[in-house]
Amino acid sequence: MDYPNDQAPGAPIRSGIPEHGRIPKYYAVKARISLLLDELAEGAPLPTERDLALRYEVSRETVRQALRELLLEGRLRRQGRGTVVAGPKLEQPLSLASYTEGVRRQGRTPGRHLIGLEQFPCPEALAVEIEVPRGEPVWHMERVLLADEERVGLESTYVTVARVPRLDVEFDPDSSFYAYLRDRLGAAFGDADERIETVLATPREALLIGTPPALPMLLLHRLSRDPGGRPLERVRTLFRGDRFSFTAHLGGQDR
Fold it and tell me: Which end of the chain is more exposed for a tag (fewer CB within 10 A), N or C?
């Protein structure tokens, strides 16, 4: 197989073109639009579907399919009635760091919008996970995640009332919950288990995040523990697949 001299390490081999050289028309248009995006600044408006169809001498449906894929990949984003060039994806580290810390490291302004904070008796399945008796009072805090005021995710946090009895009066829901636990309560994190899967948002979730229901999402489940091994929090976070990627540093080991 021939590799182009300018092949980027993370790019599809041969730019995704099969060896026989036959590619769908929309994919060829998508490649040409991608080159156009490289020349435009973040937030720059894209030409209309009609203009692109005339430029590349294809149907508007072909252009529409190419744009759909670029939207799903996060190269483009909707703004009002038009489409603009999107910035690079946010890289969220797979570590015991908060969302706030991860976004700030990339020069973006993190934020959260509180959807609800309520107390309820812990159901059986959650009780097993966080190792408390069924029916023990538990907080559920749901917040929309923001980056530079853009809605990028939805987070649900479950923590026992016994551990944070004044959460509803002491905690600023726009701030980092990890910072609150650490600085206000002196709680320390020991380790955590995380699981990531690809899902589609429910109609409610899509409405809260402001995305089409068909947009792929990255769903992260986290169970954090304190240094003594006791569960500290259970978190379910939905991240926009077009705006997020995850990174991890893997240490070496003997084989």
Answer: C
pLDDT in tens, 218-237: 888 899 998 999 999 999 99
Q: Dump pLDDT digits (tens) for 66-107.
A: 888 888 777 888 887 888 888 776 666 666 566 667 677 777
CA distance 225 to 131: 11
Q: How many Å apart are CA 3 and CA 134, to the nearest integer?
A: 59
Beta bridge partners of 160: 138
Question: What is the rounded CA–CA span in Å between residue 67 and residue 51?
Answer: 13
> Half-sphere exposure (CA, 13 Å, Cβ side) for 43?
1
pLDDT band of 1, cuts 50, 70, 90? very low
Length of the chain: 255
